[in-house]
Write a structure and sequence with these properties.
The protein has about 200 residues and is α/β, with parallel strands linked by helices. About 35% of the residues lie in helices and about 20% in strands. Strand 7 and strand 8 form a beta hairpin. Helix 5 crosses helix 6. The longest helix is centred in the middle third of the chain and has 15 residues. The radius of gyration is 16 Å and the shape is globular.
């Protein structure tokens, strides 16, 4: 069983440092280009299925992957991003101190939003569904940073604090296989384990 885990491309709201959560925003040109580059890096690696979060930015990114990989994408509601509560659509600079994160710990529910802990059951279900699809061949799942951390924590069984520090650059894909995780980047780099978080 092999699952490729990618994020949606950069959006206009990402670039302007707005909090999206389950809100939506169009992809930037840079976001589309980076998605194309990662799709090209994944081409030839045997992806046989393509699923995505139902949010528009993930659907648009999956369409790019699908065009390059020759796959039709299917929306998987379980992959939707964490809810950002009353911070949805707000500017980070006005609501989150510089250097801080939207969720400072695993159980943190920002402005009545969803915590990582709240999404654990959904992540477990998503992994079951992905595993079922991957039984027929490797599957690419296009999702989001926050929910992706929960997926990685559930898949690896690592400490929540470790998962909280995981990064997932938009030009990288995680490869989940045989209970381990490795990564590859559009620029050609690859390695094992989790990438460190870097502020975007």
């Amino acid at each position: 069983m092999r699952i490729y885990l990618a994020r949606c491309g950069q959006t206009i709201s990402n670039r302007k440092q707005f909090i999206l959560g389950r809100d939506d925003s169009p992809l930037t040109r840079s976001g589309r280009d980076a998605t194309k580059q990662l799709a090209a890096a994944l081409a030839g690696l045997g992806a046989a299925g393509l699923v995505c979060s139902p949010l528009g930015r993930a659907v648009a990114s999956a369409a790019i992957y699908g065009e390059i990989l020759g796959l039709a994408s299917v929306e998987m509601p379980e992959l939707i991003d964490l809810h950002a509560g009353q911070f949805t659509g707000k500017s980070r600079k006005f609501f989150i101190p510089a250097g801080d994160r939207l969720r400072s710990h695993w159980e943190d529910q920002p402005a009545a939003g969803e915590s990582y802990a709240d999404a654990e059951e959904r992540a477990g279900l998503a992994l079951e569904l992905l595993a079922a699809k991957a039984a027929c061949g490797p599957v690419l799942a296009v999702g989001h940073l926050a929910f992706g951390r929960v997926l990685l924590q559930r898949y690896l069984g690592i400490a929540r604090e470790e998962a909280l520090m995981a990064g997932h650059p938009k030009d990288a894909a995680y490869v989940l296989e045989d209970g381990e995780v490795r990564w590859l980047r559009a620029g050609g780099g690859e390695g094992r384990g989790l990438l460190p978080y870097e502020r975007e």
